[in-house]
């Protein structure tokens, strides 16, 4: 996999499953991201969440509307396919973590960015499927916009149709990495896990990946712009 111009080891995404290529375009919904690797260690962190009313469908259609200013203009997300509880919202969240910290709650399909005064911005997410979830502390080691994706040799061997991308699939709307990616590190090493942009609204609120976490593109851009390198990330047990 190539990320931000860096060549990643082929084994990093050994478990990526490309289940279908339609008319020469990558079927992103069929993509199971990441690699089944050793967990980062369990962490017990309780978060008490309360919330009031969320967005209406009309409001969500505005928030998740098209983003024409991007390098690759992003179309509106079909939020009618998303359970309203996964729309972005501000909620109460009691935690000892500092503002700016990202907390991933895979059991409930949420990602939180801790704000001031006991609040958090909450985003709906897709997460790792059963058997591929992990928990522990990490941090954002690097960030990427419209990164290139390269299938590992192991994947090409299993699925020859992916060979057409052996030289790298440039960033774009059909690229599995999406518009933005936060790469999670621990002790100076890339963990193989990411928080990435998903263009598939039907995936939000489900476990479909091999450990990575996806937000709708509009939410991912919102989080990415407020997340510097070195930001702490806590992944709760599912």
UniProtKB/TrEMBL annotation:
<dbReference type="GO" id="GO:0008360">
    <property type="term" value="P:regulation of cell shape"/>
</dbReference>
<comment type="similarity">
    <text>Belongs to the YkuD family.</text>
</comment>
<keyword id="KW-0961">Cell wall biogenesis/degradation</keyword>
<keyword id="KW-0449">Lipoprotein</keyword>
<dbReference type="InterPro" id="IPR038063">
    <property type="entry name" value="Transpep_catalytic_dom"/>
</dbReference>
<keyword id="KW-0573">Peptidoglycan synthesis</keyword>
<keyword id="KW-0378">Hydrolase</keyword>
<dbReference type="GO" id="GO:0071972">
    <property type="term" value="F:peptidoglycan L,D-transpeptidase activity"/>
</dbReference>
<dbReference type="GO" id="GO:0018104">
    <property type="term" value="P:peptidoglycan-protein cross-linking"/>
</dbReference>
<dbReference type="GO" id="GO:0005576">
    <property type="term" value="C:extracellular region"/>
</dbReference>
<protein>
    <submittedName>
        <fullName>Lipoprotein-anchoring transpeptidase ErfK/SrfK</fullName>
    </submittedName>
</protein>
<keyword id="KW-0808">Transferase</keyword>
<keyword id="KW-0133">Cell shape</keyword>
<dbReference type="InterPro" id="IPR005490">
    <property type="entry name" value="LD_TPept_cat_dom"/>
</dbReference>
<dbReference type="GO" id="GO:0071555">
    <property type="term" value="P:cell wall organization"/>
</dbReference>
<dbReference type="Pfam" id="PF03734">
    <property type="entry name" value="YkuD"/>
</dbReference>
<dbReference type="InterPro" id="IPR050979">
    <property type="entry name" value="LD-transpeptidase"/>
</dbReference>
<feature type="domain" description="L,D-TPase catalytic">
    <location>
        <begin position="100"/>
        <end position="236"/>
    </location>
</feature>
<keyword id="KW-0328">Glycosyltransferase</keyword>
<comment type="pathway">
    <text>Cell wall biogenesis; peptidoglycan biosynthesis.</text>
</comment>
<dbReference type="InterPro" id="IPR006311">
    <property type="entry name" value="TAT_signal"/>
</dbReference>
<dbReference type="GO" id="GO:0016757">
    <property type="term" value="F:glycosyltransferase activity"/>
</dbReference>
């Amino acid at each position: 996999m190539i990320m931000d111009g860096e060549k990643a080891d082929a084994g990093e995404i050994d478990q990526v499953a490309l289940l279908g290529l339609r008319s020469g375009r990558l079927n992103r919904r069929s993509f199971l991201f990441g690699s089944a690797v050793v967990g980062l260690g369990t962490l017990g962190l309780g978060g008490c969440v309360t919330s009031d009313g969320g967005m209406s469908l009309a409001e969500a259609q505005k928030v998740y509307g098209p983003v024409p200013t991007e390098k690759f203009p992003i179309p509106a997300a079909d939020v009618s396919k998303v359970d309203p509880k996964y729309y972005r919202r501000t909620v109460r969240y009691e935690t000892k973590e500092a503002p700016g910290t990202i907390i991933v709650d895979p059991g409930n399909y949420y990602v939180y960015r801790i704000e001031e005064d006991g609040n958090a911005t909450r985003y709906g997410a897709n997460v790792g499927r059963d058997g591929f979830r992990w928990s522990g502390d990490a941090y954002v080691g690097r960030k990427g916009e419209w990164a290139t994706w390269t299938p590992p040799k192991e994947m090409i061997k299993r699925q020859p149709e992916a060979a057409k991308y052996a030289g790298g699939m440039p960033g774009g709307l059909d690229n599995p990495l999406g518009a933005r990616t936060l790469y999670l590190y621990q002790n100076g090493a890339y963990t193989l896990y990411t928080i990435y942009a998903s263009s598939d609204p039907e995936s939000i609120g489900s476990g479909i990946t091999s450990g990575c976490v996806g937000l709708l593109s509009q939410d991912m851009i919102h989080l990415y712009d407020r997340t510097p390198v070195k930001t702490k990330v806590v992944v709760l047990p599912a």
